[in-house]
């Protein structure tokens, strides 16, 4: 006779009882589990003639991910999914593959992750707990501009506020969605694509571009929204990935030194640069990247001794992988003086806090 199985699953967080029945296979994969939770399960077997027989209760626990320091994005079912990972590469999906979520940014003061999500054909700013729970929609005026995958926002250091671009405007908003305030608008109608708020909230780094992603400018504004310094302008090609150091002495960014421009935003030689405010000097730290590849989306490590970034072929279609490397050359090592290392494969948009 055919044996069918039924599984009953409970957990230590609530009174939910999940039943999976009419199973003919002796194995079953349980999905959509909550991190840091103990689950209890038992199985019954039935031949539809005799009374069903239940097994003893067994249990397992899911791992706690709130201390994972790495965040990144992978594509699943044609949607962007946000993952967190520890140093060993043990990763956990924080968002569903049924809806596209990307650009994670963690705030240590609140232990919250802000991110972008598709919402009724718009891009809105959301927050969630470090384990992916308590998802909250922050914005009603969309995060918008050139190419949604190129847009970025920034937390205030204390986690009370966020800033984000909307075409030629930069808005400030409280994390609960209140207090929306315009803090800067470009004078020439250029789109603001990226912003980074300094740790002391005294300055903001901004990257602007035209509707095609070019005619880029990277500059600094003060707390009143006034432009006080220009870092990059008047060049051909793409740029981005802006990140201020905690002491406001260094700006990390990427720039395609080939100067190539095309309708599909292809980049040929995107490299990572460190700009030193004290000396007004720029250092190329991508000297050890493989020719024919791009270094993209850089962020400082928590110690700021390293950077994390994406490297991929400049063909625009190859797999993207996440790397780390030193900010300053280690001249005591042979060959790989920046200690470039592959960290995560087939992943984009890293954050390391």
From TrEMBL:
Domain Fibronectin type-III: 1-65
PROSITE patterns from the UniProt entry: FN3
UniProt signal peptide: none
SUPFAM superfamilies: DPP6 N-terminal domain-like, Fibronectin type III
InterPro entries: 6-blade_b-propeller_TolB-like, FN3_dom, FN3_sf, Ig-like_fold
Protein name: Fibronectin type-III domain-containing protein
Originating species: hydrothermal vent metagenome
